[in-house]
């Protein structure tokens, strides 16, 4: 069943009750609990292309895409075949396998700023490693991050972070020591004067700035024109490094991530050398749905990692061959046709959301960064520049909109602070199903 039927959720509710007895909050990652939208989280049992099916047999057109990894759609046949044949050869050996260098080569060929790459298992590990590298390379203690940016759940990065912390309105996490928190300077995004002031005050002690390539964990909020370039130049003038976090945007916002979308901008006026981030982190799409992430960047920095250098980093499951098969196959199928399909679907859906909300008289803004988008409910005279502005959005309206879409068979992120993800499997029929549900959801948002 799909569009138009208000469906049973009895089985999902039973499963949630059961999980709640043995798993904190019934979930292994907080936003899955429908914490801010309320209602019964759907337990999903299968997915194919643009569609997912829940435990009660309801089918949904999906705009979560596993929070990003399912770039080609769920259970893409080539990815599943590659995973099966890798699994048949063994699930992992704790020794090097040929596909590790193949994946590194694939990423290096797409992102020139990456000269060397190390594979890890989650985005959290990738950013954690990048920060340790930056501190090891510079001998400096402080890290600059931007409010509303999310870089995983390592201690130093949970200050004013996006994603689940934004959804739950948490300023940080219990369990982080003051000493650790004091090593992170949190600044407003897109605010060059604030960044300059921080470097004036602490310049000699700042190891790195970490930034999402385009913020997408407080809803989508791209860097303003010129901001990324100025940020990199400023850091470099002060001997600090820049870590560009492409865990979410990498190989999704475009074939070479958001860095590729920025392209010309990093070349400035064309007279000087293009500026580049020193380290980059990847996750989600690079693992094609299995646990795999990566940190990469300048060779001289990356070669500080053990066993060559003094910065330690390791992982029992790093470079797992089954995850490598999923990631490599996903990237190899992520060709120009796939990206143009994703862009076309994103344009069509984002445009239809706007028309439906305009039609129902609901004030809103559609936020875009490459093929990523999200919707902000409320009156915004100008494009928001940072976290303080997006926190003023009307989450009550998102909640009504989300449930009306879900009831009509469309699976949106269960939080107003997350990006919407389309896949290359979102063909005209899938887009049509989403578009058909929008007027009803817009009316629900208007009533809320
Ligand atoms: N960085 C960014 C930009 C992310 O979006 C995420 C996850 N949403 C992470 C890091 C952390 O990745 P993981 O959940 O795989 O640890």
TrEMBL record:
It catalyses: (S)-4-amino-5-oxopentanoate = 5-aminolevulinate. Transmembrane segments: none annotated. HAMAP family: HemL_aminotrans_3. NCBIfam families: PRK00062.1 (NF000818). Keywords: Cytoplasm, Isomerase, Porphyrin biosynthesis, Pyridoxal phosphate. Belongs to the class-III pyridoxal-phosphate-dependent aminotransferase family. HemL subfamily. The gene is hemL. It comes from the Bacteria. Its EC number is 5.4.3.8. This is Glutamate-1-semialdehyde 2,1-aminomutase. The keyword Ion transport does not apply. PANTHER family: GLUTAMATE-1-SEMIALDEHYDE 2,1-AMINOMUTASE, GLUTAMATE-1-SEMIALDEHYDE 2,1-AMINOMUTASE 1, CHLOROPLASTIC-RELATED.
